[in-house]
What does this fold into?
Amino acid sequence: MTGAEELRSRTRELLAAHPPASTDRLDFLRARFDAGLAWVHYPEGLGGLGAPRSLQSVVDAELESAGAPDNDPRRIGIGLGMAAPTILQFGTEEQKRRFLRPLWTGEEVWCQLFSEPGAGSDLAALGTRAVRAGEDWVVNGQKVWTSSAHVARWAILIARTDPDVPKHRGITYFVCDMTDPGVEVRPLRQVTGEAEFNEVFLTGVRISDTRRLGEIGDGWKVAQTTLNNERVAIGGMRLPREGGMIGPISKTWRERPELRTHDLHQRLLKLWVESEVSRLTAERLRQQLVAGQPGPEGAGMKLAFARLNQEISGLEVELLGEEGLLYDDWTMRRPELVDFTGRDAGYRYLRSKGNSIEGGTSEVLLNIVAERVLGLPPEPRTDKDVAWKDLAR
Amino acid sequence: MKNERDLLYSEEEEALRAAVRDLLTDHCDAPGVIARTESGTPHHLALWKALTDGMGLAGLLVPEELDGQGATHREAAVVLEELGRAVAPVPYLTSAVVATEALLACGTDDLLRDLATGTTIGALAVALNVAPGAAYRVVRHEDGLLHGELTGIADAAVADVLLVPADDGGLYAVDATTATVTPQISLDLTRPLATVTLDGAPGRLLGDAEPAVRRALRAGAGLLASEQFGLAEWTLTETVRYLKERKQFNRPVGGFQAVKHRLAQLWLEVVNTRAAARNAADALANGDDVDVAVTVAQAYAAPVAVHAAEEALQLHGGIGMTWEHPVHLYLKRAKADSIAYGTAGAHREALAALADLEAP
It folds into this structure.
């Protein structure tokens, strides 16, 4: 096992061989990956050293104080948080070697072709078809809510390969080349006015069988790995006090006493307390992960933040009064990042409505907490033993 | 914040929890607590003796040289989590925390020794509803004797010594046998209140009342959050257990989505309460960022404990409304706790100044 001291000295060796001040950003990131310091818990040769995940912070702290470049994990979040752990667990050696390095350095952006117009919360009902044609699969269908699709080089894709078995069993997981001529990406304009997401139309897209992840028909199990990693990624954040959505409204309250009313004051204090407590729960969860005793709290963090973001941003629009009647810009933009603090309160209000839908609706997450954490009986299922093709649609 | 908060439990704290829980399982079951509330002596003094004589828990906050354990608020918080789970009718929060903190502020060694061993029970003669920064009533100090009446004094019925603030700014130790202690009919049957009447009672000056009362109430409010967490966790666990078994419409009631969502929401609140209570206990132990940590914990934990107990009663259906089922003990304790050491509103008001979010 690789200890903290060894990681620290390896990091210093990297910095000595590639001084950040005189090294090209991408060259530095590639060298970091090759030194096993990208994600230390990954295997050797794949950007890691098989060290405990908690020791990544040792490397990060050394690099940060040396002013080393960052791979901007926000911009490549889907690749890092979801594609990478899935490829690591289910990919072939060749797939891991081909995809993980440019994914981590950000040279190749990833997106996720999961949701469909008819399969959101009921994701396993998806209808995009993949039909075997020799060494290839031919894919036809439509995906939706795909962030980064317009800049992505690769996508993780789930498609139906067997309509004659119940819905969870006939799905297969692929890596899709977004530059294939059969892939058409159309912006999907949202309530905020911008198009952060896309619709993706797949028409006769040929995917080599070597780009399949996991066994044929086993795609639902593979997708669970992706989705669980998505939720873990949300719980690992570390925020200072007032680090979330409560920050901007608290600042406005302090700077503009003319806006204050007693009613708004009561509501602000209540939300301030709840924000602080949620931050403490996230911090407790982080400490549990570091101590190697992960708790179930992560399942609830997304629920808590979604509700808080919506309530706080709603209050903020109200606090602003006349100004709250205005909006900064309705021009259709194509942002690469969700920027909650760079835009105005109206944007925050509208965008936060998505927090209780994206990555699993709050209703679905409440079911997950009730069933997996509290052990309550599952929802009655009418589609369990029915072939997908026979389901009502 | 200077120090990084430790929001987890150490192995020693988990061992302490296990020991307290075992003791409570053996000596403090719900039917026993209910029966006791209907007697003239609602407090469980044999349990108190086991906790204090047997385990030394009354002295957790007292230094070792004064016969205490020299432990911290983190350990006391774990004890309170367990006492909350059992709605145990013992004067732990009032004597081992609040009265002890008042004495620590005054540096009264002999009385601290007595409280630390549990042989003497102390009660701060300030009404239970008073928030750490709020005004409190005092008695008249005249010719070396104390005169006056104080109401809402928790656990005064079993106190041996009363710590009484007087109009000269002093805090006095009064032997309970020289005062008249009259039980009040209390909402919370397991932490009953009493009226204390002093009619020329002799008192020994301990020190300045103001800093001692503030410190005592702040520790009380901060650690009350751990009791509220324990209480809320018990009601949630018990409700989930019941709803997995109880069937209606040929299905376990816990399988209905409307019920599942309520319980999942409650679980989230309980999980948050643990983090807030842990943060307050750690802050009290380390003396950093204490005021914010305590007000946040109390503003959050009090409504959650009430919500948890109310949901428990509702989701138990008819049986939840009966005297024989213990859920009412938890509801009464939770509601009284939501007023004890300041309401959530009082703590939010205090927070306005602490977090620089001033009122209009």
In short: The first strand of chain A starts at residue 110 and ends at 113.
